[in-house]
Amino acid sequence: MGNNENVLFAPFGGNDPDPDAFLSMVLDGWAQQQRAKDFALATIRTRRNVVMSMVDFAGSYPWEWSLGDADDFFSHARAVRNLSHGTVRAYQGHIKLFCEYVCDPHYDWCEQSAKLFGQVFAQVVTELNHITHAQPSEARPAKRPFTQRELQELFDLADVEVERILDSGRKGALAAWRDAIAFKSAYSWGLRANELRHLQVVDYSRNAQAPYLGEQGVLRVRWGKPHRGSAKKPRSVLTIWPWSVEMIQDWIRNGLPRYGHPVNDLFPTTGGSIVGESHLLGKLHTLIDELGFPPGLDLHSFRRSYATHLITGEGFDVTFVQLQLGHEHAATTSIYTMPSPDYQRLALERAHERTIQAALGLKPSRRNS
């Protein structure tokens, strides 16, 4: 059986070992290993469910799996269940990690399965059937960033909504102001919805290289998207635009105190919790519908717009934007950086201006040089 004292043995009685009991022990051992590596409980449950889904689909136990079983499972998920490339890739990652665990000789699971069932575990996710991360684009085609014009109109309408509520005498002006600031903040720092909701005043600090931005030169994002289900992944986002600082400073000084008590959460509710994602999404859809924008916009569109406008509109380096967004892979950042119509229009205007200047015998302006 091996000499590892931490191995879980399968004490089956009689001559017929119970494969379900053995599988349960294997999965429990895998869960212990993942907890030791600080993976979230929800992630551990998800991975276990994926393994069990493949067991049910293949009609066989993991020590009986072949590459063909994996191919059929992933093909069915993509072609029949219509799951996205990203979801199927995540499934493959879960199965691959499970197979790596059970094939590791330190745990002796292969030796146990060989003695009990005459078969051993094998890795069924290889370079032959694994979807690579660097797909041209996994973004849903229907989803898109805001154009610069759409952003300006949206922010203007969000500000007008506060005035309309105040003029009507209705309640909700403070909440409308909060929502307007939240939308502008999501764009200003390229935030995911959950990152945005959990922001606190103390997350801002000075940037020694940009003292003119005051106390909001750097934003510490503490609720970043975790890697492979581990703890939240923090990152620091440098402030780009001075108007973002003015906006958030005004909210901290004049908006938050209206909740009547010291508040550290940047986007609180009157009940003392933080604003909900469903509320923000509903409010955003209301504003978008009033403006009559084409479909494809959601809360994540602010993050898409941030990346797109920085790279294609303002010429920032892709690596810098990757760090700002907290992406592990540059390929993920590239998904957000399709040139926008605004970028194409400005590029054409610059080309026309250079042509006119050349025809008039003028030197190119610094902006176009």
Q: What structural keywords apply?
A:
369 residues; mainly alpha; hpI Integrase, Chain A; 2 domains; 3-stranded antiparallel beta sheet; 14 helices; 3 strands; elongated; disordered N terminus; Integrase-like_cat_sf; DNA_brk_join_enz; Tyrosine_recombinase_XerCD; Tyrosine-type recombinase/integrase
Tell me what the structure shows.
It holds the Pfam family Phage_integrase. This is Tyrosine-type recombinase/integrase. InterPro entries: DNA_brk_join_enz (IPR011010), Integrase-like_cat_sf (IPR013762), Integrase_catalytic (IPR002104), Tyrosine_recombinase_XerCD (IPR050090). Keywords: DNA recombination. The protein is mostly helical and 369 residues long. It contains 14 helices and three strands. It has two domains: 99 residues; 191 residues, Orthogonal Bundle (hpI Integrase, Chain A), CATH 1.10.443.10. It has a three-stranded antiparallel beta sheet. Helix 1 runs antiparallel to helix 2, helix 2 crosses helix 4 and helix 6 runs antiparallel to helix 7. It is elongated and about 85 Å long. The termini are far apart.
> Which descriptor suits the 3D outline?
elongated
**Major beta sheet summary:** 3 strands, antiparallel
The strand line-up of the biggest sheet is 1-2-3
- Proportion of strand residues: under 5%
The averaged pLDDT comes out at: 85
- The appropriate CATH architecture of the largest domain is Orthogonal Bundle
In short:
It comes from Glutamicibacter bergerei. The chain is an all-alpha fold and 369 residues long. Helices cover 53% and strands 3% of the residues.
